[in-house]
Design a protein that fits this description.
By secondary structure, the protein is α/β, with parallel strands linked by helices. The chain is 39% helix and 17% strand. Helix 5 links the parallel strand 4 and strand 5. GO terms for molecular function: 3-dehydroquinate dehydratase activity.
C-alpha cells in the first residue's frame, strides 16, 4: 500500500489527544535492520529515515555526508518492503545537527522530490533552505505532508523569545506540521516549552513537535504530544537526550501520566501461568508499568480480569494475550515477544 493511501497518523493522533512516537533509524544501510525492524517498531507510529546518515557498505560517514540519489532510492524501497509504518524522510544539515552539506540545496531538493515520487508520507524540510527550494517543494509535494523544522544548538534561544517566534511563524507559513527543536540549557526550559505548547493549542490546530534537546530537555521528550524515541537495537540516538519508548513510558508513569493497571488471569493453572508471564513480558518490552498475576485482587489503580478458561493451544494464547495488551495500552502488541514467551 502506498504511504499516501494511509491516513495521516500524526494529525489523527494529535487531534485525538494520543501521543505520537517517531522512531529515527540511524543505520547507514537500512538492510542492516532487516532482522530486527519488527521489534524496533513495536509501539511506534512513524519511522524517521535519516537520509544524511545513509552510506553504502564500505564507505564511512564523515563530518559531512551526501548520499547518492540511487542509493537513497534503494534504501527507501528497502524500508517500505520491511515495514508498513509510514515514513518521515529527513535530511538534516550540518548546521542543524546532521551530516548533509549546508550548501547542497539542489541535491536536497532532488532527494525530497524522490521521496514524494516514492509515496513517502512525510518529509522534513528545514526552513533555512532557500525560499525558491521551499516554494518548489510546496508546489510539487502532492499528498506528502511537510514537516517544517527548525533546530537551534546554541542553548541561548528561549521559548519566550522573539527569535523563536520568528522561526515559528516561518515554519507555520510553510509546513503542514511544525517542528521546533531547541537545545535546553536548564530543565526550566522544559517548563517554558510546556507553556508554549499549551498556549499553541489554544490558537492553532496544526500538529506541533516541540522538543528540548540534550539532557536538560529530556522531560519534554516524555510529555511532548509528538516525540522522537530511540531503541536499544538502533546504532545510536539521532539527537542528544533522546530516550527509548520504554523509558518514556516508565517516566510517564512516575510523573502520574500513565496509571498502573493490574490484570488478574483466571482459568486452568498451567494456562494462567503461561498467559500471565507472556503478558508481563509484553508490558516490560515497552516499559508499561502494568502488572499481571494469577490471583484476583483489587489493589491496582485499574484492575481487570482476563479469563483464559478453555484455551488449549499456543496460537490461541498468543491471540488472547495480544488482544489484552492492546486493550490495556491502545497499541498493537509485540507479537514476537509474546510468541517467544509462550513457546
Amino acid at each position: 500500500m502506498s504511504q499516501l493511501q494511509r491516513k495521516d497518523i500524526i494529525f489523527s493522533n494529535y487531534v485525538n489527544g494520543k501521543q505520537t512516537f517517531i522512531i529515527p533509524l540511524t543505520f547507514t544501510d537500512i538492510n542492516d535492520a532487516k532482522g530486527i525492524i519488527t521489534r524496533i517498531g513495536y509501539g511506534g507510529d512513524v519511522w524517521e529515515l535519516r537520509v544524511d546518515l545513509l552510506s553504502p557498505p564500505g564507505k564511512e560517514v564523515g563530518d559531512v555526508n551526501l548520499p547518492s540519489l540511487g542509493y537513497v532510492k534503494e534504501q527507501v524501497e528497502a524500508l517500505q518492503a520491511m515495514s508498513s509504518l509510514p515514513i518521515l524522510f529527513t535530511i538534516r544539515t550540518k548546521s542543524q545537527g546532521g551530516k548533509f552539506p549546508d550548501d547542497a540545496s539542489k541535491e536536497a531538493l532532488d532527494l525530497i522530490l524522490l521521496a514524494v515520487a516514492s509515496g513517502i508520507a512525510y518529509v522534513d524540510v528545514e526552513i533555512e533552505w532557500p525560499p525558491a527550494m521551499l516554494k518548489e517543494i510546496t508546489e510539487k509535494k502532492s499528498s506528502t505532508k511537510v514537516v517544517a523544522s527548525y533546530h537551534s544548538w546554541t542553548g541561548k534561544v528561549a521559548w519566550t523569545s522573539e527569535e523563536l517566534m520568528q522561526r515559528f511563524a516561518a515554519a507555520d507559513a510553510f509546513g503542514d506540521i511544525i517542528k521546533l527543536s531547541i537545545l535546553s540549557a536548564a530543565i526550566e526550559d522544559c517548563y517554558e516549552l510546556s507553556l508554549f505548547v499549551r498556549n499553541y493549542k489554544l490558537k492553532y490546530s496544526k500538529p506541533l513537535l516541540a522538543v528540548g534537546m540534550g539532557p536538560n530537555g529530556q522531560l519534554s521528550r516524555i510529555t511532548s504530544p509528538i516525540s522522537l524515541v530511540t531503541h536499544p537495537l538502533i546504532p545510536f540516538p539521532s539527537a542528544p537526550g533522546q530516550l527509548s519508548l520504554a523509558q518514556v513510558h516508565q517516566a510517564r508513569h512516575l510523573i502520574g501520566q500513565l496509571p498502573k493497571q493490574e490484570i488478574s488471569v483466571v482459568g486452568e493453572e498451567n494456562v494462567t501461568e503461561k498467559v500471565s508471564r507472556a503478558l508481563q513480558a509484553a508490558f516490560l518490552e515497552l516499559g508499561y508499568p502494568h502488572l499481571c498475576s494469577v490471583c484476583k485482587g483489587k489493589n491496582g489503580n485499574v484492575t481487570s480480569e482476563l479469563d483464559v478458561t478453555g484455551l488449549d493451544s499456543t496460537s490461541s494464547m498468543v491471540t488472547v494475550v495480544a488482544e489484552e495488551f492492546t486493550q490495556c495500552t491502545g497499541r498493537p502488541a509485540p507479537w514476537s515477544v509474546i510468541d517467544n514467551c509462550l513457546q
